[in-house]
Design a protein that fits this description.
Low-confidence stretches: none
Shape: globular
Enzyme class: hydrolase
Largest sheet: 4 strands, antiparallel
Number of helices: 16
Subcellular location: Cell membrane
Keywords: Cell membrane, Glycoprotein, Hydrolase, Membrane, Signal
Protein name: Multiple inositol polyphosphate phosphatase 1
Radius of gyration: 23 Å
GO molecular function: acid phosphatase activity; bisphosphoglycerate 3-phosphatase activity; inositol phosphate phosphatase activity
Number of strands: 7
Order of helices and strands: HEHHEHHHHHHHHEHHEEEEHHH
Amino acid sequence: MWLQPDMDGQLASRGRRDMKALAGRLAARFPGLLAPQRRLAFVSSSKPRCLDSAHAFREGLREALLQHHRGQGPTAEGNATMTETLEVNDRLMRFFDHCEKFVRDIEDNNTAMHEVDAFKEGPEMKIIVEKVANTLCLPVSDLNADLIQTAFFTCSFGLAIKNVNSPWCSLFSTEDAKVLEYLNDLKQYWKRAFGYDINSRSSCNLFQDIFKHLDQAVMESKSSKPISSPVILQFGHAETLQPLLALMGYFKDAEPLKAHNYHRQVDRKYRSGRIVPYASNLLFLLYHCDQTSSPEEEYKVQILLNERLLQFPHSGETVSLYTDLKNHYQDLLQNCNFVEVCAMPKNTTRVD
């Protein structure tokens, strides 16, 4: 087994390469990132894999910067520098750990994942358990859904990290993989997304922080001042992104994901493996537009998820006036108070 306990929580070498490549692609797509003496603000979770991701991304930017200025002479290469700051902020990037209501009602509540538990015992998973037991010549009683999922993850980690097709992969068909994908989506849906309101609303601090920086950039631009934080790069987790995207209304299905409706959810929007794959990324881009007919049209926004444009929920378009976007999210910006949302009422008993 190449997977070892000391690898837990660490950034894999493939992940390091992915982060460097991502930085290179973004630098090529947005050459303003490589402006001489560009100021970059890095914010990271305290987890080693996030700090290492930030470091790898910075390396990728530096390499892109040097390549961009190479061949332009010694003077140009001397401009190939960046001014950087790094802040470790778990309250922002691991907000879920600091939300008492989420920790008590979801994280530490054994009954919160009842739909996941029900699917593990459901007919779709039983078929896989019986098939794998038969393949391995084991009694069905020796296997369960958790062991099957571990075998599937072992297969998928080998493919993703090592690019090897391990013997574990031979246990599963494409249809099995779809069932196991749904099992994981169920868990993410109920623990990190639309299953419970607290999942998404625990991210309101991060959501408001993003708009605080956008507001500041607009204000400085209108005052003809240099933008104090033109590039802010935040490194968190899949568990950071999923609640934020749910808060913004992305990938919400008309029917909730449940244990009994697997076949009706074949074409579901909520597929965690596509929303937050390895090296997943969410970009907010603010544009200052000249020659507009009114001040309201001067600033526009685009949002990219995994380097692809997202349509805005309020318009279906991929470009939005900044004022329109703020109006759409006005309630969240003004009334989603993290302290109030996450506070536990005193002298109350949890109802499961």
